[in-house]
Amino acid sequence: MRLLGLVLVFCLILPPVAQAAAPAPLGGGSVLQTGASSRCTAGFAAVSGTVGYLIASSACGKPGDTIRSAGRVVGVVAAAQFPPTGAIVIRVTNTTDWRLVASIPPVDSRVTIGGAAEAPVGASVCKYGSTTGWRCGTIQAKNVSITFPEGTLTGLTRTSVCAEPGDNGGPFVSGNQAQGVLIGGSGNCSTSGTTYFLPVNRVLSAYRLTILAGS
C-alpha cells in the first residue's frame, strides 16, 4: 500500500504535456518583412494545388528572399514574372506557424474574398494597408503606364485612394472581389492621394494561381 501511494503522488506532480500552438492566420493585410527591408503589406492569399502563396508588391522583396511576419518565417519569394516595381508571389513554406485565410485583415476581418471579378472605372474600391488600415475611393482609370527608375510598368489601375509608407503591396477590393495590389502613388492620407494597383488577375494568370476565396 505504501508503494502504491508513492506512485500515485509521483504521477500527480508530473508536469502537463505541452501542446503545440495552432497556426496563426495569414493573408491579405498581414505585415511582412525581409531580413533588412522596411515593412510592407501582403496583398492576397492564393493557391496552386495544395501549395499556398501570398501575392504582394515587389517592394516586399526579391526572388530568393526569405519573408517573415511577426518574427516568424513565412516562406520564400518565387521567381519574378514582372519588373522590380510590379508584383511578387511568396511561397508559404512554414505551415506549422501559419495557415492561409481569405479574410482581410486575417485577424478581425472586415472582408472575406469571394473571387476576383474586375470592377469597372467609377466603381468604389477600398485598400487595406498595415499603416493606414482601410481607405476607400473610386477607380479612376485603367491601363495606365508609369515609369519608375527600374523601368516602365503598364496596365495599372489608378484610384483616388490614399496610402502611406508600409502600405506597399496591400490589397484593393471592390465589395468582396479582389482587385489588385498597391504598387505606388502620390500624396498622403492627411491631405489627399492617388494610388496605382497592379490588377490581381494579371498576377494569378502569370503564376497560374487561384485566388483563395471563402464564404
Can you give a write-up of this model?
Belongs to the peptidase S1 family. Residues 97-204 form the Peptidase S1 domain. Disulfide bonds join 40-60, 126-136, 162-189. The structure is a single chain. The chain has 215 residues and is mainly β. It has 2 domains: 24-103, Trypsin-like serine proteases (Thrombin, subunit H, Beta Barrel); 113-199, Thrombin, subunit H. 9% of the residues lie in helices and 45% in strands. The chain is built from 2 helices and 18 strands. The protein has helices spanning 2-12, 200-207, and strands at residues 24-26, 31-32, 40-41, 44-48, 51-57, 66-69, 72-77, 87-92, 98-100, 103-104, 111-112, 124-129, 133-148, 151-159, 171-174, 177-187, 193-199, 210-211. The strands form 5 sheets. Strands 6-7-8-5-4-18 form a 6-stranded antiparallel β-sheet, covered by helices on one side. The chain is globular. Mean pLDDT is 87; it is low at 1-12.
- Mean pLDDT equals 87
CATH fold group of the largest domain: Thrombin, subunit H
User: Largest beta sheet, briefly?
Assistant: 6 strands, antiparallel
Write down the overall geometry.
globular
CATH homologous superfamily annotation of the largest domain: Trypsin-like serine proteases
How far the N terminus sits from the C terminus, by CA atoms, comes to: 60 Å
Helix content: under 10%
Order of adjacent strands in the largest pleated sheet: 6-7-8-5-4-18
According to CATH, what is the class of the largest domain? Mainly Beta
Q: What ranges have pLDDT less than 50 throughout 5 or more consecutive residues?
A: 1-12
Structural class: mainly beta
Output the helix-strand order.
HEEEEEEEEEEEEEEEEEHE
What's the CATH architecture name of the largest domain? Beta Barrel
Number of strands: 18
- Strand proportion, as a percent range, falls in over 45%
* Overall domain count: 2
Instruction: Indicate the radius of gyration in whole angstroms.
Output: 21 Å
